[in-house]
Every structure is written in structure tokens, then in C-alpha cells.
Amino acid sequence: MRKKKTHILGWILLLGSTITICSFLFIIIFHLFSQGLPVLSWEFLFGHPKEGLTKGGIFPAIIGTILLTLITTVFAVPFGICCAIYLNEYAGESRLTGIIRASIRNLSGIPSIIYGLFGLALFVQSMRLGTSLLSAGLTLGLLSLPYIITTTEEALKRVPNSTREAALAIGSTQFESIRDFVIPQAMPGIITGIVLTIARVAGETAPILFTGVAFYITGVPGSVKQEFMALPYHLYMLSTQHQSIETVRPLAYGTVTVLILIILMMNMVAFYIRQKFRENE
Amino acid sequence: MNNKLSAEKLNLHFGNRHTLKDVNISIPERKIVALIGPSGCGKTTLLRTFNRMHDLVSDVKITGEVKLEDLDIYGNTIPVTQIRRRIGMVFQKPNPFPKSIFDNVAYGLKLNKTPAGRINEIVEESLKESALWEEVKNDLKKPANRLSGGQQQRLCIARTIAVKPEVILMDEPCSALDPISTAKVEELMLELKKNYTIVVVTHNMQQAQRVSDEIAFMYMGELVEYGSNNKIFLSPDKDMTKNYVSGHFG
User: Fold this and answer.
1) B14 touches chain A (CB under 8 A)
2) What is the Cα–Cα distance from B240 to B242, expressed in whole angstroms?
3) Least CB-CB distance to B53: which of A94, A165, A170?
4) Do the domain assignments include residue B79?
5) Are A18 and A58 part of one and the same domain?
6) B15 touches chain A (CB under 8 A)
7) Do residue A121 and residue A230 come from a single domain?
8) What is the nearest CA distance from A192 to chain B, expressed in angstroms?
């Protein structure tokens, strides 16, 4: 009898926690969308800010965020994947690789503002890239590398050794076994990790604050050397820095709704890709 | 009788663990040699030293000599990939590539830069040799993982013999198979013996008795006794061997 009681108590505790957490999430999303969705319109999505940012749209910020994530992807993904392959397939277990792995794990715990300041020092000033799309993209790339390396390494670890041995046993080189079997088998995990990481960094504000994001610019950037607008910073600015915060509040809700929808879409892409690969197996 | 494979004063350590202790063994050409012994005695470890499958393990230390005829396997005179093409391996759990039946067999040929015109022919030959051709000839494009376990294991054998090895190492090839598939693989082994030297690790005493010419009994990393099938089963020199093959321990 007593055993049954503790069982029920445990069940209620677990269910209670789940409901509490989910309801917070639901309240946040509901609140944002109920305020933000009515603001969305063609003019809001494809128009430029007008009259001291109190009217008009957020088109430059949407494009800025998309270009920024593209640059981040181009720089971080190849390095991240190669690094993970080296660590997991070639480096073996030694004190040195232990230190490297621990460092990578620690890097993913560093506050993003520190990446912002580092980007300012390295890319903007030392490398003279200026405050630009390129500097900000590289900074976000640094921020996303530890996540990409870790998720890729996890995906590679899930490929059983029998796969590697099957290829080696008929005379493939280690490189051929990795290229032909290990990477294809790990691909769904690798892609999922990348998309989730990029979706995460798309919402970062601190790293781009000093490295290239602009308060307001007319038009979209024409080259990677120009400054740009981005959704998270635009939101921060509308909610705390604007001279008439009350007037622009609806625009802030609209901006956050667009940002969340973009991230949601990226997550759905990750989900779709994973499903697609599973079917092909 | 020619010796195909041999190990002399072979010692192997995994970190601090001394897994193979002074193993000396000569494996004659075109015979089936069974490695038997209780779990953890080092028989799979010994098998994997023959095609350098321990290379990927970082804390392994191997001393002594392992030879394929006159070639020192650990001598680094030829690339390890060349050695593995001459000494093929079939694993405990069937591990076909996630590709079609045809591509499973053709993969090794493509690595070998076999001319494209010859590939079809060799794939067919290999599947016939592994007694799988009749069952799969009409759907070679089918993914290999849709085959039954026994068929997958014979496909793995076909994949191995496609690159024309001289020795085939088999690590408990039937332990994941039902009795009928096991019988088929054993029949196949006896057929393959005509062209290949086979070393097989097995836990199954009846299997060792049915298929092998020579038997090596290992215990705690040592090669306790090595002799002909009849000798090991009927009049072994050591009591330990006698107890093991009669099922008194292990």
C-alpha cells in the first residue's frame, strides 16, 4: 500500500514539473504571438524603418540576420567538422587531446559578451576588418565552433566501430572508411547539430554589438565590409534604447515574432533533413 | 605442408593488461584452424593481430613476430591496406555496408581500382562462391540490410573473397545465426578451404569439431595446446584441454 502511494506521489511530481515548465513556455509564446502576429504585414516584413523607427518595417534587419548566419555557417561549419573528425577518428586518447577536448567544452560555456569583445579586438581592430558583416559573422563563427565540434563528435561516436572495421578489413584506408561510411552514417546528427547551433547564434546580440551591427541604416548591406541591422539588436534597441518606447512597442513584438518564426523554421529544416536521411538508410 | 600464417613469441598488452603471452602458432595453408577457449582468453585478440585490426587502438603494445609467409606483418614494408587485402576478415555480427547487395561486394573492388568492366563478373563469381547467388541474383540492387542475418553473413563473406585474399579470418561468424544459417556457413567454410586458409574463432565445440583441421586451445592469454582436430578432442596432452573440450569448465 505504502509502495503504491510513493509511486503515485512520484508520478504527480514528474507530471507537475512537466506541466509547470510547459505552461511557462506556452505563456511566453502565446503572449508574444498574440501581441506580435497582428503587427505582421507585407509592409512590416518588406518595408524599411521610417520616421525615427516609429513606423515602417524591419526588412533590413531580417536580411542582415540571414546574411550574418550565412557568413557564420560558411566559416564555422567546415572548420568545426574537420576538427571533430580529427579529434574523434585520428587523434586518439592522450593527455593532449584530453586537454583539447576540455578546452572546447569550456569554450562553449564562455559568456557571449566575451566573444563580442574578442571579436572587436581581433577582427575589427587587429585585422582591420572594421565593424562589418564579416567581423560579426566571424565572431559568431567562433562562438558556434565549440557547439559544432561537440555535436559532430557525438554524431561520429554513435557510428559503431564495426562500420569502420568492415571497410578497413577489405583494405580501405582509414580516410576511405571515414569518407565512405562514417561520415554518411553520422550525417543526420551532424546536420541537426549545425542547424540547431546556427539557429541559436542567430538570436545572439552581445557578440555582434561591437563588431558590426548598426542602429539604423538605409537599405541592405551590399558587401561584407558594411555594417548591417539584425533582428536581436533591433529588438533590444526598440525595447530599451528608443526615445519613445511605448510608441514602438508593437514593432518590438513584431520583431521578436519574426525572429522566433525564423528560428522555428530552421529547427523544422533540421527535423526534415534528419527524417530524410533516416528514410534513405 | 606450407605455413601460411605464423606468430612467434607474440606478446600483446592493452595498457597494463597482458592479453597475449608468448604465443607461438603456425597456420598451414588451405586448412581451417579453430581458436577455442573460454571468454576473455585472447582468441579474438590473437585473430585481430593477424590483420592489424588493433592499429586503431591507441594503448596497444605488440612485440614478437607475425608473418604472412615471409612477409613481416608488422614490418611496415608494405602498406597495411595491402596486408588487409591479403588477409580478409569476417566479423561476429554481420556488418554489411548500408548499400545495395551489389555495392557491398563491389566496394572492395573499386578500392582496388578493378576495371569497371570486370566488376560485374567478379561480383557474380564472389556471390556464387559464397553460395548466395541463387538467393539474390534477381535483386542485386536491394539494400543489404533487408537480407536475413544468415544471408548478410554470407554477403560479408562474398565481400571478403571479392578482393581475392589468401587468408580469411572469422571471428565467431555464426554466433548471431540460427542453426540452419550456421549449417550453411559451415558448409561454405569447408568449400572455401579449397582456395583459402581459414582461421576461425568459435565458442561452439561441435562447430570446431565439424569444420576444423587444426585446433588451438587458449587460456588466459596463453596458447595451451595446438594440434589436429582428432588429437585435441580424443587424446589431448593437457588435462586443461581435455576438461575444456569435454565441457567440464569454461
Assistant:
1) no
2) 5
3) A165
4) yes
5) no
6) no
7) yes
8) 21
Closest of A57, A211, A171 to residue B164, by C-alpha = A171
Provide the domain count of chain B: 1
Residue B33 contacts by C-beta under 8 Å, 6 or more apart in sequence?
A: B27, B197, B198, B199, B200, B212, B213, B214, B215, B216
Residues of A in contact with B93 (CB under 8 A): 162
With contacts defined as CB-CB under 8 Å, which chain A residues touch B82?
Answer: 171
Residue B91: CB atoms within 10 Å:
20
Nearest to A68 by CA among A144, A150, A151: A144
CB neighbourhood size of A151 (10 A): 20
**Binding-face residues of A in 182-201 toward B, CB within 8 A:** 184-185
Give yes or no: residues A235 and A174 share one domain.
yes
Q: How would you write the pLDDT of chain B (250 residues) with one tens digit per residue?
A: 578 999 999 999 999 999 999 999 999 999 999 999 999 899 999 999 999 999 888 789 999 999 999 999 998 889 999 999 999 999 999 999 999 999 999 999 999 888 888 999 999 999 998 989 999 999 999 999 999 999 999 999 999 999 999 999 999 999 988 999 999 999 999 999 999 999 999 999 999 999 999 999 999 999 999 999 999 999 999 999 999 998 876 5
A216 touches A229 (CB < 8 A): yes
Global pTM reads 0.85
Which of B81, B95, B163 is the closest to A163 by Cβ? B95
DSSP H or E stretch at residue A267: helix A245-280
* Nearest chain B residue to A181, by CA: B97
Q: How far apart (Å, rounded) are the C-alpha atoms in residues B103 and B124?
A: 12
Burial of B183 (0-12, 13-18, 19+ CB in 10 A): middle
Residues A28, A77, single domain; the answer is: no
Supply the CATH number for residue B236's domain. 3.40.50.300
Out of A161, A169, A185, the one facing B98 most closely (by C-beta) is A185
Angle at A248 between CA A246 and CA A253, to 5 degrees: 105
**Contact status of A278 with chain B (Cβ, < 8 Å):** no
Quote the CA–CA distance of B118 and A83 in Å, as a whole number.
39
Question: Residue A6 belongs to what domain range?
Answer: 2-39
Enumerate the residues of chain A whose CB falls inside 8 A of the CB of residue B98: 181, 184-185, 281
Q: Does A222 touch chain B (CB under 8 A)?
A: no
